[in-house]
Amino acid sequence: MLSEILSRKECSECKICCEFDDNDLWETPIIYNDCIENVLSVNPAQQFIENELYGNKFKVLKLNKENEIYPCTMLDRSRGCMLEPENKPFDCKIWPLRVMKKDGKTVIALSPVCPVTAKKPIDKIMHTAKELADVIFSQAKLHPEIIKDYIDGYKVLIEE
Description:
Layout: H1 8-14, E1 19-20, E2 30-31, H2 33-42, E3 48-53, E4 56-61, E5 70-71, E6 75-76, E7 80-81, H3 90-94, E8 97-102, E9 105-110, H4 122-142, E10 148-149, E11 155-159
């Protein structure tokens, strides 16, 4: 979805969005039933943790801690994500954009963590966010559990 601002090569060289510490486990992507088959095709031993939020049931990947970090089980350290772009969880498809709730409004925000987009022109990122806004906001209405609480440092790009 974000190929205009992030190339697969740039992402596979960085991988920061595929590794979590104790403070950012909230970023672990939500896995819906239509994505489970994709995950299991790449990693048949993958286990999931079931959650429920706003009355919606969903799963997240069960991650194992390695030296203070929880790497995504879909991460191949030499080439990046093992899932094809169209088979990735929605959270991953829109990274480094995040759907957040700020002052009662749903917004699309840019994560300050992505070192690749930090070097890109903000107008190009804004253009991509505007192109994806309808899809992102529609998904947020369908699955409100993807909406995260706003965190200082995230740049708000679009308000619904």
